[in-house]
């Protein structure tokens, strides 16, 4: 009988697998490492352009997610600076609801999220890995993520406005 695949085995992009392994080593069985334990200089180098760090602000219905660090490839792909902005300020409609929902789910379940999706009629593919960070070991106060992209050659590399055409295909949690 074949062994069951683990969460990390489901991650297609090797850069995201590296990030997951780095995070998993730091957490040592906890829901996630503390923010102070994450050293940007120790992050897998090839994932840095795709990295996102968001802080959890507020609680309950007032909870929001503010980007504190955004990799150069992510900002170039979305066509704007994202640092300092809340997730719900950077998009509208269905895509905003989806992204806010992902962050809320991660904070609620305190477990990583991996999603694979596409934009603009599947012309742009993306993989996203979201990992909880916790300073007190009980609640998620930051989210360390990375999002990578694959483009069909004939398309421009900027995907905004994405709220009109996105189709997330797969969402996994361990």
UniProtKB/TrEMBL annotation:
Q: Which InterPro entries match?
A: DUF1457 (IPR009922)
**Name of this chain's protein:** PAS domain-containing protein
